[in-house]
Specification:
This protein has a single domain, classed as Translation Initiation Factor IF3 (2-Layer Sandwich). A four-stranded mixed β-sheet has the order 1-3-4-2, covered by helices on one side. It starts with a helix and ends in a 12-residue tail after the last strand. Helix content is about 30%, strand content about 30%. It has about 120 residues and is α+β, with helices and mostly antiparallel strands. The relative contact order is 0.23.
């Protein structure tokens, strides 16, 4: 009996391996950028923060999924604030937490991201 009980705690964890944060309708249009030139002339709405408490818990694939989830949370928050772009200020992992902070803006027109020079 000890064997099955020992593995019982793993079942909920295994279910959550595929967990994703649901993107609110419209949040897919929110742009996340680290380029401050993009928000020039836009209206600042406030700061948004998103956090996952399982950063890197499942290896590289899990860390990638965590990053995607945190970006989705950030987009959802920006949408609630009436924004259409997030200027990413910080992104870091602290222990098991992945934290993104960004400034939310509403821009009447969104400039395209400039090409990255090789």
């Amino acid at each position: 009996m000890q064997g099955p009980m020992r593995l019982a705690w793993m079942f909920p964890l295994a279910l959550c391996l595929g967990c994703t944060t649901a993107m609110v309708k419209g949040a897919e249009k929110i742009r996340v950028t680290a380029n401050p030139e993009i928000v020039h002339g836009c209206t600042y709405l406030g700061e948004a923060k998103a956090q996952s408490n399982q950063a890197g818990m499942w290896g590289a694939a899990g860390a990638e999924k965590d990053e995607e989830n945190v970006r989705t949370m950030l987009r959802n928050e920006a949408l609630k604030m009436g924004g259409n772009i997030v200027l990413l200020q910080t992104s870091h992992a602290t222990g098991p937490s992945l934290i993104y902070r960004g400034e939310v803006y509403h821009c009447d027109t969104l400039a395209p991201e400039p090409a990255v020079k090789p």
